[in-house]
Design goal:
382 residues, mainly alpha
């Protein structure tokens, strides 16, 4: 597509139904699936509940993280894509930079709020557990030869130290920083956008880069200065699914046709994942599947966002979208009542993610006796 072609793209987002208008209209499907993703993430990070063993991640390669990042890309196309069209590239980039600044301080605030909570619960000594130790925050309190770093707070504030469980917002920041580059490239050709996203994703695949003898050029960020640990969510890998959602909402990628053979193909991919999933190993005892996952772990890597995770998610997304693509949308209005508040904010997804992360980390650190109290369930929907 040429530069002239890109000017024909509507400034307002085009939904999966292909409609666009001058007024911004909420798409309740986006709210619904973001809400579902938040609930699944909360369940996955709440210890001691049986539902954790049956979340969608146990049935295939992808999980709720893909849903959330994909929907975040779509929401960002609504929130920021129009700003580039209306205000130009410079002011659009400035708005993205301001959002990155907000997310950064949300990351800082979330960490110190969680740190204070773990110290408080540990000092209560109700269960005899060290809750900040359970989150592997020893280096914040204890000196050791294993983590000789006198500037621990400086390392945290400069993102050179990203504690365990706290790398989702830094990943989101880096992906957002790439948005001005994407918008600049889109002014010339969408093929440039696809090439940029694809090359960055390829360079984020550690196993591939090593196989090509280019391991030194693997794109990643160190998570702490005293070990080789990297960010668990490699933003250079996860930007692929973020900008896929972004491209769909911008209208750069056309809505997929609803055809029998595509539905069959997507269904086969989803079902074929089950024997290779956690359920296949745990419930069906497929030892060969455990060996397969070990041999081909690079293809399903969550850190670098392996290609099979992408294929599995797109198949699930197509199956979820295709039935309602040709039907009335009233069912989505009714379904939304199951996900109140979590998916209905008009701002980008960082505030929902901070709230959900706070809940999940709080549950992880709370005494087990608190998990069964009625207020722990109602708090999710308040």
């Amino acid at each position: 597509m040429t530069a002239a072609d890109t000017h024909a793209i509507p400034s307002r987002p085009v939904t999966a139904l292909g409609a666009s208008s001058g007024a911004r209209v909420r798409d309740l499907r986006l709210d619904f699936f973001r809400g579902i993703a938040m609930f699944i993430i909360l369940i996955a990070h709440t210890p001691g509940n049986f539902l954790t063993s049956w979340i969608p991640a146990r049935w295939g390669f992808s999980d709720a993280t893909e849903i959330f990042v994909f929907c975040s890309g779509m929401a960002s196309a609504i929130a920021f894509g129009g700003a580039f069209d209306r205000m130009g590239w410079v002011l659009g980039s400035a708005r993205v930079a301001f959002r990155v600044w907000q997310v950064y301080w949300a990351h800082v605030g979330l960490f110190f709020a969680t740190l204070a909570l773990t110290v408080f619960l540990t000092d209560l000594d109700i269960t005899g557990r060290n809750y900040w130790g359970q989150l592997n925050l020893w280096m914040m309190f204890v000196e050791s030869d294993k983590w000789d770093n006198p500037d621990i707070l400086l390392s945290f504030m400069t993102l050179r130290y990203v504690p365990n469980y706290f790398d989702i917002l830094p990943m989101y920041m880096v992906v957002l920083i790439g948005m001005p580059v994407i918008m600049w490239l889109s002014r010339y050709s969408l093929w440039f956008v696809a090439a940029f996203v694809g090359i960055v994703w390829l360079m984020a695949q550690n196993a591939l880069m090593i196989a090509l003898g280019l391991g030194a050029y693997h794109l990643e960020f160190p998570a702490e200065p005293w070990t080789d640990r990297q960010w668990f969510f490699n933003p250079f890998g996860w930007q692929l699914i973020f900008f896929t959602g972004f491209a769909f909402m911008r209208g750069w990628l056309p809505k997929p046709p609803v055809t029998t053979w595509l539905i069959v193909l997507a269904t086969v991919i989803v079902i074929a994942n089950i024997p290779l999933s956690n359920i296949g190993i745990r419930e069906f005892g497929f030892d060969w599947a455990r060996e397969w996952r070990s041999d081909y772990k690079a293809l399903i890597s969550k850190s670098d966002f392996g290609i099979l995770r992408y294929v599995h998610f797109l198949s699930l997304a197509y199956l979820a979208w295709s039935p309602q693509a040709t039907r009335a949308r009233g069912c989505w209005h009714r379904a939304q009542v199951f996900c109140p508040e979590f998916g209905t904010r008009s701002s980008p997804s960082s505030s929902r993610l901070v709230s959900n992360r706070w809940l999940s980390l709080s549950y992880r650190c709370s005494p087990p006796a608190l998990w069964d109290l009625p207020w722990t369930c109602s708090a999710v929907t308040q």
